[in-house]
Amino acid sequence: MTNSGIQVTEEDITGITADAIVNAANNSLLGGGGVDGAIHRAAGPGLLAECRTLGGCPTGEARITRGYNLLAAWIIHTVGPVWRGGSQEEPELLARCYRSCFSLAREHGIRTIAFPAISTGVYGYPKKEAARIAVREARQALAENGQLATILFACFNSDTRRAYDKALTEP
Fold first, then answer.
1. CA triplet 151, 155, 158: central angle to 5 degrees?
2. 3: closest CA among 158, 143, 163, 120?
3. Contacts of 167 (CB under 8 A, 6+ apart)
4. Minimal CA–CA distance to 72: which of 133, 25, 114, 128?
5. Which of 12, 19, 36, 159 is catalytic?
6. What is the layout of strands, in order, in the sheet containing 74-78?
7. Taking the CA of residue 110 as centre, how many other CA atoms within 13 Å lie in the half-sphere pointing to its CB?
8. In CATH, which superfamily holds the domain spanning 6-169?
9. Which terminus of the chain faces fewer neighbouring Cβ atoms within 10 Å, N or C?
10. Is 36 a catalytic residue?
């Protein structure tokens, strides 16, 4: 499959210029640690106020809000699975996160979208497996959605970036 339209970078997702960035959120959508906390801090108090109106989000689904003080117009919040060894439907739940995000992207005419490494931080998902799922779903989204131009994986460290770079070399 082609990787045209997929990019990997090692940078802070809150500083990325894109139509949308994805937040690796918790079920409450009210902020937390890691990427979630960084996005809430950078976006400002309007984000928390809007998130309070959403009623949370189940694992594997996504919700969309305005970008507030970010360079992105939209924030798509998705709740990835906590890694429990792989036997609790974690791969399917992680894939559903990406599909849910891409569905919202299509609905809102989003052409450029940046993702963190969903579930690979405190949720403990193995980076190599998570990257494979992310790349597979990104390729599928690009094949199905002609308006989607760029998918950027914003990795928070070099180990994560290597996992995503490697996943891009696999068929």
1. 135
2. 143
3. 128, 131, 132, 134, 135
4. 114
5. 36
6. 6-10, 150-155, 112-115, 20-24, 74-78, 62-66
7. 31
8. Leucine Aminopeptidase, subunit E, domain 1 (3.40.220.10)
9. C
10. yes
DSSP per-residue codes, 8-53 = EEES-GGG--SSEEEEE--TT-S--SHHHHHHHHHH-HHHHHHHHT
Q: Please, what are the averages of pLDDT over each run of 10 residues along the chain (171 residues)?
A: 87 97 97 95 98 97 98 98 97 98 98 98 97 98 97 97 97 88
The pLDDT assigned to 78 comes to 98
CA-wise closest residue to 129 among 137, 103, 27: 137
Token pair listed for 121: 């931080």
Q: How many CA atoms lie within 13 A of 29 on its CB side?
A: 23
| pLDDT in the model for residue 3 | 81
